[in-house]
Design brief:
- It holds the Pfam family Aldo_ket_red.
- The protein is α/β, with parallel strands linked by helices.
- The chain is built from twelve helices and ten strands.
- It has one domain (about 5-325): NADP-dependent oxidoreductase domain (TIM Barrel).
- An eight-stranded parallel barrel has the order 3-4-5-6-7-8-9-10, surrounded by six helices. The protein has a two-stranded antiparallel sheet with strand order 1-2.
- Strand 7, helix 5 and strand 8 form a beta-alpha-beta unit.
- The protein is globular, with a radius of gyration of 19 Å.
Length: about 350
Amino acid sequence: MEFRNLGNSGLRISEIAYGNWLTHASQVEEDQAVACVRQALEEGITTFDTADTYADTAAEAVLGRALAGVRREEVEICTKVYFPAGGRGPNAHGLSRKHIHESVNGSLARLGTDYVDLYQAHRYDDMTPLEETMEAFADVVRQGKALYIGVSEWNAEQLREGHRLARELRIPFVSSQPQYSMIWRVIEGDVVPASRELGIGQIVWSPLAQGVLTGKYVPGQAPPAGSRATDDKGGADMVGRWLADDVLLERVQRLRPLAEQAGLSMAQLGVAWVLQNDNVSAAIIGASRPEQVTENARAAGVRLDADLMAAIDEVLDGSIERDPGMTRMPRRAEFPIR
């Protein structure tokens, strides 16, 4: 495993991070989830990403139990706040002072730790003043409940304003967690340049586009049994947008000889590709089996030459999304009050 600084901070994280969205307490049983976490540790992965909303709080609890007995100082635990997570009512989501303080306490209890290394705003809250949000995060840092602050799926303008307030409050705003892959490059135009300027590093999710870039989904064929496309607990909904595009799936199949020529599996090629971006501090992988962790972890330290990077672009040309406006930001007002 290799390690990178998270933005311009002194925090070192494994360049392959393990995430448990759509898997723990959902797609796989707990014994299998624990086995995947243990395999991640065996592969040298030290960075673990989760969120209070994953499996309606249950994913955090599974990760906490899976890491029980691991020396706390030897891992970096990252979680998030914003979406509804086990609560009801008008304050059960968002980035208000009330929701942040109540949520961090719940996350710490489920994770079985006194602090998280990175606490992240899971989305931007358009119904709460940003000053209130950042002041609440400052409280969390000063209380020792989080060491660093980050965000997920914020656009460049939001990053700049949040970072400005963080500097005024003297708290370390060091990370952004966007979707990023060979076919989803919406951060390259605005978010990455702003992040480089601000000293913010990317911890990217879905580097394999929900498994599409592994080549397992073949045009005209049913999805493989046990794949995310067959998961009725949320996985199928996420990958469905890619599976409807036969042109994209055909182009992905044409990446296979490029991967073989480089001595890589398709999954390793996809993870290694995002790590070529020097603003990416880590790529988050998920897994339903320990052997998937091992395969993906082998992308650490891989360097792709310029000819291979150009060949990938040529194959995927026409199927790459680059529009910065596609940064995912659901309006909070759209959430139902439960």
